[in-house]
Amino acid sequence: MAIHETSAATESGEQPGIRMTMSFADPATARELLLFLGRSLDDESFSVDCVVPSDSGPHVVAVDTVTDAQLSTAEYAVSCGYYDDPRSARLADIADEFDRSESAISQRLNAVERHLVRSFVDANDLPDKRAERC
């Protein structure tokens, strides 16, 4: 674990505070810690970034904008097999679990998916790879 404390804003715009970098061999342990921190600290100056290593280096995906309802719905969707191929759960199954309409559950999952896809694309959007935008 690396801990870096700053007393003034840095050139990159990082605000004063403490930045911690941690590595885990077990993804479940990392997920548990992120969930604990995200739910335990109710501070506007607190944010959690999930860093995922890849062949091209780490990519940061901010998870602090995902609501508790979106996160719990996404966690349940993964655990019950909604994202398996082939799917072993239906949207209706998830809706029943949360006592919400299929439309509401679809909106929650779409919000998480949209956030992840945009973060993934932004992290891989190198100048030489950019396609013409619409």
TrEMBL record:
<protein>
    <submittedName>
        <fullName>Transcriptional regulator, contains HTH domain</fullName>
    </submittedName>
</protein>
<dbReference type="Pfam" id="PF04967">
    <property type="entry name" value="HTH_10"/>
</dbReference>
<keyword id="KW-0804">Transcription</keyword>
<feature type="domain" description="HTH bat-type">
    <location>
        <begin position="67"/>
        <end position="117"/>
    </location>
</feature>
<dbReference type="InterPro" id="IPR007050">
    <property type="entry name" value="HTH_bacterioopsin"/>
</dbReference>
<keyword id="KW-0805">Transcription regulation</keyword>
